[in-house]
Amino acid sequence: MEGKSRVLIIGVTGNLGHHLAQAALQFSHPTFALVRPSTFSDPHKSHKLHSLSSAGVTLLQVSLSLSLSLSLNFSLKNGGTIFKKNGSLEDEESLMTAVKQVDVVICAVSAKQVLRQKFLIQVIKQAGCIKRFIPSEFGLDPDKTRISGMDHNFYEQKAEIRRFVETNGIPYTYISCNFYMSYLLPQLVQPGLKVPPRDKVTIFGDGNTKGVFVKESDVAAFTIRALDDPRTLNKVVYLRPPGNVYSMNELVEIWESKIGKKLDKVFVSEEELLERVEACCIAETPYPDNMEMVFIYSAFIKGDQTYFDIESSGGVDGTKLYPQQNFITISQYLDTLLFGVRH
C-alpha cells in the first residue's frame, strides 16, 4: 500500500460514511474511522462498526462533540488492542491524536452538524500534516444554488464551511454529487409517496429542467479516487454521470417504458410550487420534511444542478477524470423498483 494515503473518515455509521470506508478499503487505503463509544450501544450501528473493523478499518473511539467546551474520555483500538487514557481530556487533544495518524480527513456528518466542522478544521490546521480535507457536502454546490432565503440556511452553512477551509489554508477537495439515488428517486420525485406512481404523476414546472442522481456507493468510489489526485486539489469535483442526468419528463418516460403504461400527468407551475414551499414554512413542517419541495424547486425549476458548465466554473468533472469507474444508472436503479425491491 506504498503511496496510498491514510484516510480518516468521520461519520462512518451513516449511509455515505459506511460506503466511504468500504471504498477506501477497496482502493487499498489504510482506513481509520472516528466513532463515539456510545455508538456501540446501537445494534445497527454496532454491526456496521464490527463489520468494518473485521474488514480492516481501524476504529478510533472518541467521545466527540466537535465542541471546544466539552471534555471526554479517549480510547484507541489498534491491532485488536484497546488503549485507554482515563481522565478528562479536551476535544482538541483527542482529535489531534486521531488526525496526526492520517494524511486525509473525510467528513460525512449530517447537515445538522455541518458547522461543527469548524473545530475539526482548526485542529487540522494546527496538526499541519493533512494533505487533503474533504468536508461534508456531497450534494449540490452551495456556491451555485439560487434559492437564497428558502433553504433554512442549508446551503449557506455549507458555503460558510468552504470559506472557513479556504481562509485557514487547508488543502481541500469538495464533492458535488447532487442528489443521492435514495432521495426522491425511489418515489419518482413525488412528495408523499414511498414508491413510484402507477397511475398519475406530478411534474413540476415544464418538466424539461434536468436533475442528477448518483448512488451513494458510487459517490464514495469517486471520492476515494479523487483524494490523492493532484488534478482535484483545491477543486470542486462534480458528478454528472451519463445516464444519471434527466428531466422529470424523461424520468417519467423511462418509468412508463418499464411498467408498460402511460401515466396521467399533472403539471405544477413554479408559482404553485413556491406556494407549497411557503405553506411548509407557515405550517412549521419539521426538518428535513420541510426541505423536499425546496430541493425539487432548486433542481427541477431553477436547474441548480446543471445550469452551469463544469470546466468554466473552475471545477472538474469526476466522470471524465475516472472513466474506468463503473456506476449505477437511473434506469438500472428504477429496475429495482419494479417489484418494490430497492438496493
Automatic annotation (TrEMBL):
Record bears the keyword Translocase: no
Keywords tagged on the record: NADP, Oxidoreductase
Positions of the NmrA-like domain: 4-334
The keyword GTP-binding is assigned to this record: no
InterPro entries per the UniProt record, alphabetical: NAD(P)-bd_dom_sf, NmrA-like, NmrA-type/Isoflavone_red_sf, PCBER-like
A Pfam family of this chain: NmrA
Domain of life assignment: Eukaryota
GO molecular function: oxidoreductase activity
SUPFAM superfamilies on file: NAD(P)-binding Rossmann-fold domains (SSF51735)
GO biological process: lignan biosynthetic process
PANTHER family referenced in this protein's UniProt entry, alphabetically: PINORESINOL REDUCTASE-RELATED (PTHR43349), PINORESINOL-LARICIRESINOL REDUCTASE 3-RELATED (PTHR43349:SF34)
Protein name: NmrA-like domain-containing protein
Protein's organism: Malus domestica
